[in-house]
């Protein structure tokens, strides 16, 4: 069983060592979690042909998968706080693989929703959140760059899985492709196996010392057995009272601002990537060239995330992280709006370059901003609650965009819609963060002034007392 969150908090982050193995595992988990729902979009044309459904129907597969990734956040938080990260990730890897293998035997779109959408999405959720939590325990000073490197797994896997999916589709059909993809997801179990709880050896040696002390006490006469029994009862009661999901983090106004902004972001962030391949194919772009567009986004994203993580780690930037994230959101929204009229392959490639750059910045910063708001101790509960709120948005965004395409036969609308939502979120986050920062600064200044006044008053009282004594 994995160690509890409170136990791991007692050990200082090593910022290296086994943390690099944890970082590499988080890199793989992030790659599967974020890239997989987009990469399977290369199968949508075949699914539409076999099941006789439209764009919005197939878009639900990715939406349900992403919704499970987000909506299972509280469940994942509870399981991590109860059992630890490692066992939860092992179960998640098995579920993710079983969902895609089961999807290869489905006979209608509803069965795909349940297997590829619900089961695989739940499995990815049980891997994704624990990997982020472990990363926060192993890194502190290097946390921005660690988050940036782990987030780079998304573009790397997107660059690889999209062309691979097209090759598998051409060679084995969508059923064979789903079966092989399910086998690849078993690698999540390997990543979960290396998530060693921080401070495991210390806890083990401490337990050994406790057992030795117990043996010595049995050899010697003891008068404190009743006290020890009472202490054990108190410890058991405290374990029962431990919160598996801490809702008190929602008292932080900065966290509320972050949640509202992320809800708006998720409405439009994934829409272009999920429908991009189908859009390119409808414009007459060959299938493999259309699938390569996602790889272009991934290639640019690969360099954008670690670079952004390095910049975010600078002393002058780290305190202003919310504004940096706001800038990334504005750039992503402007990219969508300015590229709405792209029709030829060259225009789509230019869109993918700028989209990959801004998308990578968002991916590298979003969880670093959250960690900065709530800290390591509250990150597990805060992340679960944030992902739950975002689940509703991800269920609305891509299917709504697909419905627009089915109704108006015009992809231009979805770029305007997605871009507008990202720009609104960026402006809101910047203004609200400034107001919260200004309010906090005002409170701190008032508290300092009150402390100074109280100190001066006490000093004057002492002086008056001394004068009276002298008289």
From TrEMBL:
This protein's GO CC annotations: basolateral plasma membrane
Keyword Cell membrane set for record: yes
GO molecular function, one term: monocarboxylic acid transmembrane transporter activity
Signal peptide stretch: none
Residue ranges of domain Major facilitator superfamily (MFS) profile in the record: 19-444
Family affiliation: Belongs to the major facilitator superfamily. Monocarboxylate porter (TC 2.A.1.13) family.
Name under which the protein is recorded: Major facilitator superfamily (MFS) profile domain-containing protein
């Amino acid at each position: 069983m994995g160690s509890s969150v409170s136990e791991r908090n007692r050990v200082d982050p090593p910022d290296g060592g086994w943390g690099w193995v944890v970082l590499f595992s988080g890199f793989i988990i992030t790659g599967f979690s974020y890239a997989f729902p987009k990469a399977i979009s290369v199968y949508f044309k075949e699914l539409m042909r076999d099941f006789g459904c439209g764009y919005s129907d197939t878009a639900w597969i990715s939406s349900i998968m992403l919704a499970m990734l987000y909506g299972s956040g509280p469940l994942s938080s509870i399981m991590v706080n109860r059992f630890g990260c490692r066992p939860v990730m092992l179960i998640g890897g098995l579920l993710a693989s079983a969902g895609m293998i089961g999807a290869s035997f489905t006979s209608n779109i509803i069965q795909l929703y349940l297997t590829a959408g619900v089961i695989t999405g739940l499995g990815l959720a049980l891997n994704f959140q624990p990997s982020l939590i472990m990363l926060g325990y192993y890194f502190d000073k290097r946390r921005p760059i660690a988050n940036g490197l782990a987030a780079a797994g998304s573009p790397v896997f997107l660059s690889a899985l999209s062309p691979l999916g097209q090759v598998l589709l051409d060679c084995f059909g969508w059923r064979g492709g789903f079966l092989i993809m399910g086998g690849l997801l078993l690698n999540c179990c390997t990543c979960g196996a290396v998530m060693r709880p921080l401070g495991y050896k210390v806890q083990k040696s401490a337990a050994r010392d406790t057992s030795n002390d117990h043996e010595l006490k049995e050899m010697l006469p003891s008068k404190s057995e009743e006290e020890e029994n009472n202490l054990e009862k108190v410890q058991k009661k405290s374990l029962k009272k431990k919160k598996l999901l801490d809702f008190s983090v929602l008292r932080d106004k900065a966290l509320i601002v972050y949640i509202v902004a992320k809800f708006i972001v998720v409405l439009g962030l994934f829409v272009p990537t999920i429908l991009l391949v189908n859009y390119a194919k409808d414009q007459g772009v060959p299938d493999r060239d259309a699938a390569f567009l996602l790889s272009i986004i991934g290639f640019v994203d690969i360099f954008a995330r670690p670079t952004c993580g390095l910049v975010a780690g600078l002393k002058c930037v780290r305190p202003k992280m919310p504004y940096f994230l706001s800038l990334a959101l504005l750039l992503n929204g402007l990219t969508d709006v300015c590229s709405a009229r792209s029709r030829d392959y060259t225009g789509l490639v230019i869109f993918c370059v700028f989209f990959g750059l801004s998308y990578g910045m968002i991916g590298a910063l979003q969880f670093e901003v959250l960690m900065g708001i709530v800290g390591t101790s509250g990150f597990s509960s805060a992340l679960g609650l944030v992902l739950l709120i975002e689940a509703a948005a991800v269920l609305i965004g891509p299917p709504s965009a697909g419905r627009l395409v089915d109704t108006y036969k015009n992809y231009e609308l979805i770029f305007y819609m997605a871009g507008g939502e990202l720009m609104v979120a960026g402006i809101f986050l910047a203004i609200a963060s400034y107001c919260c920062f200004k309010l906090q600064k005002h409170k701190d200044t008032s508290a300092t002034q009150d402390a100074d006044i109280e100190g001066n008053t006490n000093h004057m009282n002492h002086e008056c007392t001394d004068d009276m004594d002298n008289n």
